[in-house]
Recover the amino acids of this structure.
């Protein structure tokens, strides 16, 4: 194979530098927003304008079915508040978006590609974990309208939404606001 000489012009160099600057600016914006939106207290944390229950210690992980999760949220008394609830699927997606992740449905043809992108995106992985989402799957309050025996949940590592059987066990983290 014969190598061709590549002429590097000032114009092509400037294009590359503009693209790199754009990527750096977007990355910095994601990091700034992630720090700005994260306020923690002893038992709660503020994320994207909502108050979230602090993540449960690993040895006490709340893997419970959807019905018990709804009951848990209804009875939760934390931070001086008693109006806790399960987050909607949109609120869970917003955490992923705010960390620079991509959200995709579990049956989408591009699922493997998006999962691979999210799994290899170190900034995204560090961001959602810093916000207390270190488990894989979390319940939402959103019911699957196509199958009411299921409710929506989300996979934080891969960024995909899942329709889980309500009697299955998934992590729960409550929110208010």
């Amino acid at each position: 194979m014969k190598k061709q000489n590549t002429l590097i012009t000032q114009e092509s160099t400037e294009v590359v530098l503009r693209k790199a600057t754009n990527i750096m600016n977007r990355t910095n914006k994601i990091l700034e927003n992630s720090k700005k939106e994260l306020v923690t207290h002893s038992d709660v944390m503020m994320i994207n304008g909502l108050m979230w229950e602090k993540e449960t210690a690993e040895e006490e992980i709340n893997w419970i079915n959807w019905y018990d999760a709804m009951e848990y949220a209804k009875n939760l008394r934390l931070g001086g508040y008693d109006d806790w609830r399960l987050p909607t699927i949109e609120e869970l997606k917003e955490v992923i978006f705010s960390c620079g992740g991509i959200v995709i449905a579990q049956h989408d043809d591009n699922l493997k590609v998006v999962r691979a992108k999210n799994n290899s995106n170190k900034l995204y992985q560090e961001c959602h974990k810093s916000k207390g989402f270190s488990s894989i799957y979390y319940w939402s309050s959103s019911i699957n309208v196509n199958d009411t025996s299921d409710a929506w949940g989300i996979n934080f590592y891969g960024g995909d939404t899942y329709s889980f059987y309500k009697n299955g066990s998934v992590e729960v983290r409550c929110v208010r606001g």
About this structure: The longest helix spans residues 10-36. The helical segments are 10-36, 66-75, 89-98, 111-120, 122-130. The chain has one domain: 10-176.
